[in-house]
Write a structure and sequence with these properties.
Blueprint (H helix, E strand, L loop, with lengths): L6 H12 L5 E4 L3 H12 L5 E4 L3 E2 L21 E2 L2 H9 L5 E4 L3 E2 L5 E2 L2 E3 L4 E4 L6 H7 L2 E6 L24 H4 L7 E7 L2 E5 L6 E6 L5 H6 L12 E2 L5 H11 L7
Helix pairs in contact: 1-2, 2-7
Length: 254
Amino acid sequence: MELKYNGTELLICLSARIMEDRSSAFIGTGVPMLAAALAKRLYAPNLVSVFEFGGVGSSLKYLPRGVGESKTFYRASVASGICDIMETAARGFITYGFLGGAQIDMYGNLNSTVIGDQAKPKVRMPGSGGANDVGSFCWRTIAIMQHDARRFVEKIDYLTTPGYLSGPGAREAAGLFPESGPYRVVTNLATLGYEEESKRMMLISTNPGVTVEQVVENTGFELIVPDEVGQSEPPTEDELRILREEIDPEHLYI
């Protein structure tokens, strides 16, 4: 029997499968929270969650409504503050960082500040928050985005969060960790990564029912497409049951 699921549930499951056991992850509001909670239950029981306002190692038994809510501290290893958390990232102790944005380019640079000219923007957005720190200091960043040519652009209007900047060697030249940088982009169409040498975005797998051609058509820059492209598995019965019955039974996000 084919399981029914929505786009948000698919993004959560795809993101949860990426995280490794005994790693740490900087968690943001929404999909990242649910992905981390699902990963802890199924794939990475020793995942250490890190929340911007000081909760480290929460059990994630109860779903927080925001990154500073009391549930982010429930049975946590550390109850600290934002300055300590950012220092922890800067010292290289956080493996994964979740990011989002209105625009992304082929090197994984993100814009969440303005669309159009900065002085007279068409749209003014919230800005960085902690996103610049996450993108600068976490070893591997995972961007979760809707996939269309307006968001996947040749040149972003404003650099909010650094990816690989202008390409190979640019992060190191800017003083960032040489081994750090963008790792995956999870979208409603596909999962993407980055080619090791060029640091350009590369298609890894398409989502169920999505073709390579659809991904290319919705990308506003030249995407690297390898000879073999995988297809991601749809959410499993266990993933959906845990999401719906244990993680988000009140349907706050799904």
